[in-house]
Design a protein that fits this description.
Shape: globular
Largest sheet: 5 strands, antiparallel
Distance between the termini: 121 Å
Helix content: 10-25%
Structural class: alpha+beta
Order of helices and strands: HHHEEEEEHEEEEEEEEE
CATH architecture of the largest domain: Beta Barrel
Oligomer: single chain
CATH class of the largest domain: Mainly Beta
């Protein structure tokens, strides 16, 4: 009987011992805090509507004596329409914005109200920093156009391109380096830049420029010096 009762007492002990390893399993149950965090991490990104900035400039760019109106727009290759706003992900870094925006198949286009005029198109672009009428620099009766493309890249080094409408097509006559800190601003609304401070500035009826890419080759006396912007006429 003693052995029988000993066995009876031993069996519950063994059962408890066998159940002991199951206790850690309870500790492995889903932690509510971790579960909530996981759900947050798996949430789809939130989106906000962003107005796509448009720039406008007027001038006689084709030299026919009639004022033309140029305007920038974002052209969707997918929908084949121009967009004035887009839903963008919130709270993401610039490198992610670059990838996301590039995937939207948008082009920045400088177009004229005159449908007979050709357009200027940029891919991998976040728009333009500036769009400036320089007047007629080369005496061909047409105004020249300066612009800086807001490239989708990590560099703050950029270039200002000077265009002329030549024989029914826009052509780059010259370009020079600029630093994008010239377009830094304070506040929420980006201003319209009518010059590029330190890089392209009007003096009287002439424009003067400084090539940021050539600074390291300058002599000490020429540091900061700006030069008159001159371009040759279009070739027939």
């Amino acid at each position: 009987m003693k052995n029988y009762f000993s066995l009876l007492l031993l069996v519950p002990a063994l059962l408890l011992a066998c159940k002991a390893p199951s206790e850690p399993e309870a500790s492995q149950e889903t932690n509510p805090v971790n579960s909530q965090q996981s759900e947050v991490n798996q949430e789809a990104p939130r989106y906000k509507t962003k107005e796509l900035r448009s720039l406008k400039v007027v001038g006689d760019f084709d030299g026919d004596g009639v004022r033309d109106s140029l305007e920038t727009g974002f052209y969707s290759v997918d929908s084949k329409t121009y967009l004035d706003k887009i839903a963008m992900p919130e709270d993401i870094e610039w490198d992610s914005i670059m990838v996301w925006f590039d995937q939207q198949n948008l082009s920045t286009v400088v177009k004229s109200a005159n449908t007979k005029m050709d357009s200027i198109e940029f891919v991998s672009s976040f728009g333009l920093y500036c769009l400036i009428n320089l007047g007629d620099l080369n005496g061909d009766k047409g105004d020249e156009l300066a612009l800086v493309n807001d490239r989708l890249d990590m560099s703050r080094l950029n270039s200002c391109q000077v265009y002329s409408y030549c024989n029914g097509k826009w052509k780059v006559l010259t370009e020079f380096g600029v630093h994008e800190d010239a377009f830094d601003f304070i506040g929420d609304e980006q201003p319209v830049f009518k010059l590029i401070s330190g890089h392209l500035e009007p003096r009287g009826k002439k424009w003067f420029y400084k090539d940021y890419n050539k600074q390291e080759f300058e002599s000490q006396d020429s540091v900061g010096q700006m030069f008159e912007l001159r371009v040759k006429p279009c070739k027939p």
